[in-house]
Prior knowledge:
Helix content is 20%, strand content 33%. By secondary structure, it is α+β, with helices and mostly antiparallel strands.
Amino acid sequence: MAISKRHTTKYLEQRTSNQLNSKLGSGDFMKKYFVVLLFGILLILSCKDSSVEPELIYDGITETNESGPEPTGNIDKDDWLEQYNYVVDPTLVPVSYSVYPAYPNPTKRFFTIRFVLPKSDSIVIVLDDKALNRKTTILSKNLNAGIHEVTIDLLYGNSEIKREEALARVFLEIPTLKSFPKVHGDIKILKQ
Length: 192
């Protein structure tokens, strides 16, 4: 007796279906699968990526004008670091590092940061411009002892950029001094 290909295929489909139904029971397998899948999704959503930087809170500026870093209006107590005594040698002789408020602040395009190094040291200045979704290293080099000023262009050399009013944050750090705080200050960018 010859069995046709059609009968064989139908027999295999029915047998596979019967085996699957006997393993799954009356939908128990699908219920368990759904619960495990839902749990996995919730677990993934509840995990936090520790490599993501915390959101910065921009809470104000220290107002200055074009003539220099001396405050001329509101002062944000969390901005900048006017003087920081840091012991750099075992004889416990204090030295002073100073970072002054950016000026002018607020500004449309350019602002300057003044800082003092009591000895040659490495400096890193980073501009975090959330409005343009841009984080730029402005300066990263070794500088001699003395008074230094760095002027920063908020249009990044492109006069075609049209800025809306926003806040940006500047970070200054001295990587060689591990306990030196990461100094920051907010810059108010005026609409152009």
